Amino acid sequence: MPVRPGPPSPSAFALLIGLSVLNHLVLAGVRIDVTLDALARGGSPATVGLLLALFALLPMVLSMSIGRLCDRVGTRRPMVIASGAMALAAALPAVAPGFAALTVTSAATGLAFGVFQIAAQHATAQIGRAEDRARRYSLLALGYSVSGMLGPLLAGLGIDHLGHRATFAFLALVPLVPFALLASGRIGPPQPAPHVDTAPAGGVFDLWRHRLLRRVLTLNVLFAIGWEMHTIFVPIYGAQLGLTAAQIGLTLAAFNAATFTVRFAMPWIAARFAETRVIGVALFVSAAAYFAYPFSQGAASLALASFALGLGLGAGQPMVLSLLAARAPPGRLGEVAGLRMTLIQAMAVGVPLAFGALGTAVGLAPVLWAVGAGLATGGAMARRPE
Predict the structure, then answer these.
(1) What residues contact 106, with CB distance under 8 A and at least 6 apart?
(2) Which long-range contacts (CB under 8 A, 24 or more apart) does 324-329 make?
(3) Helices 76-95 & 45-73, crossing angle to 10 degrees?
(4) Is 10-192 assigned to CATH 2.170.270.10?
(5) Which of 32, 268, 275, 383 is close enough to 155 for a disulfide, judged by CB 3.0 to 4.6 Å?
(6) Alpha-carbon distance 338 to 58, whole Å?
(7) Structure letter (DSSP) for residue 98
């Protein structure tokens, strides 16, 4: 009978964050390289949109199955396989450039990172004490903020100085570090709990019947809508205002800077305030930003509203992860993480379609105010006693 590793140490958690940062850096870099490579080959905006949608499509469909797999077999093997798959996916356009390779790379990279992310979140919940869970998720989110900034930057520099194929090749080397360390057993993520084999498997509807879990999943959807709406809205609204590409980029950078800033402070916040209180304030701040957007008529005011939105959305997501881990039925933490990922990816696919239809029919302002009202309603829901 194989011997299971003991509880992971704090240094193992630090290494887990480092490996997560490396793989997320690759995801962010590949997205940029796929987009610009497709445009350089004469791809239309519709083609680029399809390639970007492929990053979310398979995780949307398979995340719950991935979560159940982590519940059954633990997290190390899925993370090893995911890291290796990310390396192969990123290498494909370097070896066989063209739209076919970009299509496979988009789908495979999105799925591989989805597997790694669900497994990493599962491991994060089981490392250390339960009362420190919010702090651990905050540190993991902080790492993703760093890689979310570094990935596009490194990819952009690589494309400008080395070209698309060389940049894909460089990105393909990065996941080999997580692959080698995880395969060697140097890091030992938690194995399945003893009761996992007998845990009920009632599917998504069984999970949705848990009232407290359903509330947290609903709040998770609101955060996802707020995040996706910002990504789509800012370039469109900025162009309508006549802002330059640099000014629109500055607005998006302000959002990313805010998420990094608030996540840097989240360990301190998580140690002093309950998750529901932080989530409530985060949703109210995000709602205020969406109500302010239609009144923003210049680059400075738009960047300020985006910074406020980044503070709200950046603070809320680690707390949602902590609450989901606390509310998950025994032996089904991976399945809950997979359901969360499914909902997020569904918003990544559905929000652009809904925004395009509603924005054309009624204009931007009513859509933004409706999102703000939804976020404010979620803030009131989060503060209600359980």
Answers:
(1) 30, 34, 51, 52, 54, 55
(2) 324/213, 324/216, 324/217, 324/220, 325/125, 325/133, 325/137, 326/130, 326/133, 327/210, 327/212, 327/213, 327/216, 328/125, 328/213, 329/199, 329/200, 329/207, 329/210, 329/213
(3) 150
(4) no
(5) 32
(6) 12
(7) S
Between CA 382 and CA 192 the distance in angstroms is 31
CA distance 40 to 134: 43
What contacts 315, CB < 8 A, 6 or more positions away? 262, 263, 266, 269, 278, 281, 282, 285
pLDDT tens digits, 334-357: 777 777 777 777 777 777 667 666
Angle value at C-alpha 125, between 122 and 127, nearest 5 degrees: 110
Considering only the top CATH level, what class is 203-383? mainly alpha
pTM over 0.90: no
Please say whether the beta carbons of 133 and 325 come within 8 A: yes
CA 137/CA 156 separation, integer angstroms: 29
Is residue 11 predicted with pLDDT exceeding 70? yes
Pair 63, 114: CB distance under 8 Å: yes
**Highest mean pLDDT range out of 209-218, 264-273, 291-300, 361-370?**
291-300
Give the Cα separation of 280 and 297 in Å (integer): 28
Burial code (b: 16+ CB inside 10 Å, e: under 16) for 51-78 equals bbbbbbbbbbebbbebbbbbbeebbbeb
Assess contact for 68 and 336: CB atoms under 8 A.
no
Q: Please list the residue range(s) of the chain that carry CATH number 1.20.1250.20.
A: 10-192, 203-383
d(CA 107, CA 73): 24
Full DSSP string of 274-315 = -HHHHHHHHHHHHHHHHHHGGG--SHHHHHHHHHHHHHHHHH
* Chain mean position to CA 222: 14
Give tens-digit pLDDT for 174-227.
999 999 998 887 665 555 554 444 445 556 666 667 777 778 888 888 898 888
